């Protein structure tokens, strides 16, 4: 199940970033985008991270949010013939996709502000090209590795860097300075590919920033479901690697509904009928048990 390397890239507070690019005076200050209906200050649909620090959340009315953050800048979604006009956000999303296509032939747009990027081939090509070169901690400047990312309050960046360093040391047998295990039968081969994917993803996110002005976060794993999950673990403007050997530990404490496709009725049914509260519970069920309850494809 680890033959592929897939990235999910998700723009940070996307509509606000688009508005910030058009109105630089709101950059770096608390800001939110509201729906065209201006009742009670409008319904908030996107919030930047500066405003989130004050407790401003999607779904609040603008007036309520200003109660939490008096200096909050509110920007209205453009309106055309009485309806929200999302053209500028869609166009901005297309700009990002164009950059991503420079890094892979296989990019799937998943929503207005996120895309899956199949990096399997790109990674293999880069490993061949870099034959024998290692990846140093400081090449992964905004990367986190699940299982090596336990932070209490305090020096987040210090913890991040230490975690990346430890992980790279475990992947490249003799430390970062070792030659790469280039053999695909090597026990660390999957992690070598993830490390290279992280390196490419750092470049890809830097290219998105340079060419569009937008910041984003990413998840790097062997499949779409895990990449989507990993992406949400460290935001904004960060990327998270989830090595396959760390998945079961992550699963144990993770409610089923947090995972892609399991947030709705299917997740409810898994909890109520199959007794799965966490992904760990779900992982203990056999495929046969799931086929006994759901159709083959769902199982
Ligand atoms: P999201 O990616 O869900 O959120 P976000 O980009 O604002 O913030 P984050 O950094 O947490 O990823 O949504 C992308 C955009 O889609 C968002 O900026 C506004 C729009 N949107 C809506 O209009 N209504 C909604 O209910 C949601 C979830 C998003």
TrEMBL record:
Annotated keywords: DNA damage, DNA repair, Magnesium, Metal-binding, Nucleotidyltransferase, Nucleus, Transferase
SUPFAM superfamilies named in the record: DNA/RNA polymerases
Name by which UniProt lists this protein: UmuC domain-containing protein
The keyword Magnesium is annotated on this UniProt entry: yes
Any one GO biological process: error-prone translesion synthesis
Record lineage: Eukaryota, Metazoa, Ecdysozoa, Arthropoda, Crustacea
Limits of the UmuC domain: 6-263
GO cellular component: nucleus; replication fork; site of double-strand break
Location, primary (coarse class): nucleus
GO molecular function per UniProt: DNA-directed DNA polymerase activity; metal ion binding
């Amino acid at each position: 199940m680890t033959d592929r390397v897939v990235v999910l890239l998700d723009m940070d507070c996307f509509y606000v970033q688009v508005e910030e690019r058009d109105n630089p005076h709101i950059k770096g200050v608390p800001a939110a985008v509201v729906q065209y209906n201006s009742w009670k200050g409008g319904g908030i649909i996107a919030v930047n991270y500066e405003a989130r620090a004050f407790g401003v959340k999607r779904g609040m009315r603008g007036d309520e949010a200003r109660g939490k953050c008096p200096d909050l800048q509110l920007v209205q979604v453009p309106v055309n013939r009485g309806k929200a006009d999302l053209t500028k956000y869609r166009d901005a999303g297309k700009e990002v996709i164009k950059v991503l296509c420079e890094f892979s032939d296989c990019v799937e747009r998943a929503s207005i502000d996120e895309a899956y990027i199949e990096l399997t081939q790109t990674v293999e090509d880069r490993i061949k090209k870099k034959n024998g070169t290692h990846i140093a901690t400081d090449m992964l400047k905004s990367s986190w590795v699940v299982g090596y990312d336990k932070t209490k309050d305090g020096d987040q960046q210090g913890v991040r860097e230490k975690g990346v360093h430890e992980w790279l040391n475990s992947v490249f047998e003799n430390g970062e300075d070792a030659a790469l295990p280039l053999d695909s039968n090597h026990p660390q081969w999957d992690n070598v590919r993830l490390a290279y994917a992280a390196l490419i993803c750092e470049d890809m996110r830097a290219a998105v920033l340079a060419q569009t002005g937008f910041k984003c976060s990413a998840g790097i794993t062997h499949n779409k479901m895990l990449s989507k999950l990993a992406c949400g673990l460290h935001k904004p403007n960060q990327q998270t690697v989830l090595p396959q050997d760390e998945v079961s530990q992550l699963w144990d404490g993770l409610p089923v509904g947090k995972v892609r496709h399991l947030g709705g009725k299917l997740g409810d049914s898994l909890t109520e009928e199959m007794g799965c509260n966490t992904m760990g519970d779900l992982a203990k069920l056999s495929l046969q048990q799931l086929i006994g309850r759901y159709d083959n494809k769902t199982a």
